[in-house]
Write the structure tokens for this entry.
Amino acid sequence: MADTLIKEDQRPRKVGGGLLILIGLPLTLIAMRFGLSVTGTFLGILLVATGPLLILAGLWAAFPRHPPAIKMTISDDEIVFGAKQTTVPLDELIRVSFSQHFLSKFGRLTFQTTSTETHFDLSDLSHSADDIISQISVRLENRGKYLVEGRTDVLGARNGIWEVRTGLPFETGTGQDAIRDAAG
């Protein structure tokens, strides 16, 4: 199976650059029309230079000169984190947990192995947390393992912690598991 590359998302930067260009063009035209008469003063020079500076900043942001950085690579054998050059072998993976703080826009995935715990922030990525966990689950199923999301004791709500289990992913469970799944 081909490796899954999870890259940084440059869409917010490109949209912001487009907005700066959109604001800078009319501002430049207005400044050229009315601001040339006062260019002898510092305020006049600042008024005339503001529009072109916004356009230059917008062009710099809208057209990045480097490709998106690879933040994570999920292969058949391991997960490689780009910035830290840390690897998590799929054979040693015990648990994957998702957490999001109260005021945070983006969440965090934590990969726990038999020896280490690796944190991965999900800010501005090409894939969501569900996509990443799904890709890891597919790789684990090829190894005879699967991910199961845990549930809380109170009303069986999902808790955001996926445990790695051995066996077939769609086995029928005990009667208690079927009752809990029907309630949740």
In short: The longest strand covers residues 158-166. DSSP finds four helices and nine strands in the chain. The chain has a mean pLDDT of 82. The longest helix spans residues 11-34.
